[in-house]
Specification:
With 542 residues, the chain is mainly α. The chain has 3 domains: 2-328, no CATH class; 332-417; 426-541, no CATH class. 63% of the residues lie in helices and 6% in strands. It contains 22 helices and 8 strands. It has helices spanning 2-17, 29-43, 62-74, 78-104, 107-119, 121-128, 133-153, 156-173, 179-191, 200-223, 227-241, 253-261, 265-283, 286-303, 316-328, 332-358, 367-387, 395-417, 426-434, 450-456, 492-499, 520-526, and strands at 50-51, 54-55, 441-445, 461-464, 486-488, 508-513, 532-535, 538-541. Strands 5-4-3-6-8-7 form a 6-stranded mixed sheet, sandwiched between helices. A two-stranded antiparallel sheet has the order 1-2. Helix 20 links the parallel strand 3 (441-445) and strand 4 (461-464). Helix 2 (29-43) crosses helix 3 (62-74), helix 4 runs antiparallel to helix 6 (121-128) and helix 5 packs across helix 15 (316-328).
């Protein structure tokens, strides 16, 4: 089984990095993280993250550090921005296998869990655009694994590794990342009636956790007056209790989306839990611990006003373990039904791309690639379904991996051919470069476009006219240099500054959303620019 695992991990890794840099950075999250890491490297300042020259403390720095390291190895490009996320997913798959093995002492169930985890669409979504979630989930799984190893082997270095990864969780996304580890450990101890362990190694491990988790926070708070209040109120209290970042969703939001990002296992698990819930509660074992951990984190996320799809990613390792355990007890007809469903899904995905070519849409499709994709994945799915017996409960797992690979390779082609449709401004940046000889002045009206700066390799000026993303946190700036690249339209001096801009000294560009209407001062400025180019939802005047 170990050889199968390593072959699977190799296939997953190669598939994930193939053509990884073939499409542009997407706005806004990926572009923001990628640009901050780039500015860290160029400015050689790894203490104070900056975005478009202004300090940016909305997230702890680990994701930026990992991305900056990748830039040092692979260069400042899309592949460098995304590489370590793919590696993180491979580690997640490995850790799911190891955790399941510790919990159930069964290699086949553990391997099934690793296959199923990779087959969830959300795991791929999380690593195709640069965010914190892939790294956060990796550190959560690593912490959980080393805690379980310590419980099993009583070797103290596993305990220290557990506290080390807890520290990285804080430095990746803050205290919210501790909910799953704390929930799992608390429910484990309560159900198994274990006392809280007090020892010198627990004390030293906790000190290690405190040192790692607080190091960056202390360093930047000392250097930036008022930053503690910003972290506590703006980034912790308001993020949870208020719709500060326009991510407010109803309580039932995750109930609605999880079936789509957990296809098809969530549907089968509902029926499994319905018929086995009483026995799970009565047995008071591993299944109940996992269920409590899942429900605690899910409830907290649902109550929070800030909701994004990837926030639920850490829950899917529990779903994978549950699904593998469920699958090991399935009858042949259930295994057959799941396998047939995967074949249908694979054929549906591959054929839908072919159909898009013939439909009247603005999505560009290479018909030859689409047909080859349909032929390869359609044939492989039919062959696997035919030649693997339904008595082998790993069969749906293999087909699940093929399902996610079909999504992976389909998305590579679609993203590459439709950069503007996936919210990448790379084609617009290339247009500006072609018309400016790398010596231009670029203004973006009422919208934050960090990837534009990433691609142009020069500063851009943002004109703030009230959109929340353009209202930057400037209270921590030590001087007024930032004002050169951030214009406040509500300020009379800044409006006059716009009118005084000369468009004759060097190529000048004004970018705005098509749906936006320019105010009077900007109309006068725009009239100085004689040409116009459309890019999907943007207009470029030059």
């Amino acid at each position: 089984m170990r050889n199968k695992l390593y072959i699977f991990l190799t296939i997953a890794f190669v598939s994930l990095i193939l053509m990884l840099g073939s499409w542009g950075l997407t706005e806004s999250s990926e572009a923001r993280y990628a640009t901050i890491a780039k500015e860290m490297v160029l400015n050689n300042n790894f203490l104070n993250p900056t975005l478009l020259g202004i300090k940016h403390f909305q997230k702890p720095p680990v994701t930026y550090y990992i991305t900056a390291l990748s830039y040092k190895i692979f260069g400042i490009n899309e592949f460098g921005a995304r590489f370590f996320m793919q590696l993180a997913l491979v580690f997640q798959i490995f850790l799911v296998y190891k955790i399941t093995l510790l919990l159930y002492k069964n290699k086949k169930i553990a391997f099934a869990a690793s296959l199923i985890y990779f087959s969830f669409p959300i795991t791929i979504i999380a690593v195709r655009t640069l965010t914190t979630d892939a790294f956060l989930t990796t550190f959560m799984l690593a912490g959980g694994y080393f805690w379980l190893r310590y419980k099993q082997d009583s070797k103290t270095y596993f305990l220290y590794l557990f506290y080390f990864f807890l520290g990285l969780i804080i430095e990746t996304k803050g205290p919210v990342g501790l909910i799953i580890p704390i929930s799992f450990i608390a429910s484990y101890k309560i159900i198994n009636k274990e006392k809280i362990e007090i020892s010198i190694h627990q004390f030293l491990g906790f000190l290690l956790f405190l040192g790692i988790s607080s190091a960056w926070y202390i360093a930047v708070i000392v250097k930036n007056e008022g930053l503690f209040d910003y972290f506590f109120y703006n980034q912790l209290v308001e993020r949870v209790s208020e719709n500060k970042f326009r991510r407010g969703k109803p309580f039932w939001y995750y109930l609605l989306i999880m079936p789509f990002i957990g296809i098809p296992w969530l549907f089968y698990l509902i029926f499994y839990l319905k018929s086995n819930l009483k026995s799970i509660i009565k047995e008071k074992g591993t299944n109940l611990i996992l269920l409590i951990t899942f429900l605690v984190f899910f409830t907290i996320l649902s109550l929070s006003t800030s909701k994004l799809v990837l926030y639920v990613l850490p829950l899917f390792f529990i779903l994978a373990i549950y699904s593998a355990n469920f699958l090991s007890k399935c009858q042949e007809k259930v295994i057959k039904s799941i396998s047939n469903l995967y074949v249908v899904l694979i054929l549906l995905i591959a054929s839908s791309v072919v159909m898009l070519f013939f439909l009247d849409t603005d999505i560009s499709i290479n018909l030859t690639y689409a047909l080859i994709n349909l032929l390869v994945f359609g044939l492989l799915s039919l062959l696997l379904n035919k030649f693997i017996y339904n008595t082998n409960y790993l069969k749906p797992g293999y087909l699940g991996v093929l399902f996610i690979l079909s999504i992976l390779f389909t998305s590579i082609h679609v993203f590459k051919e439709n950069e503007l449709n996936i919210n990448s401004v790379k084609p617009m940046a290339e247009f500006i470069k072609a018309h400016s000889n790398n010596n231009s002045e670029v203004f973006v009206y009422n919208y934050l476009l960090p990837s534009l700066s990433f691609y142009l390799d020069e500063e851009i000026t943002t004109i703030n006219n009230g959109r929340y993303t353009t209202q930057r946190e400037v209270q921590f700036q030590k001087n007024d240099k930032w004002k050169k690249y951030l214009i406040n339209y509500f300020d009379k001096k800044d409006r006059n500054r716009i009118l005084s801009i000369s468009t004759k000294e060097k190529p000048t560009f004004l970018i705005k959303l098509k749906k936006e209407t320019l105010p009077d001062t900007l109309i006068l400025f725009q009239q100085k620019l004689k040409h116009k180019m459309n890019f999907k939802k943007f207009e470029v005047y030059y």
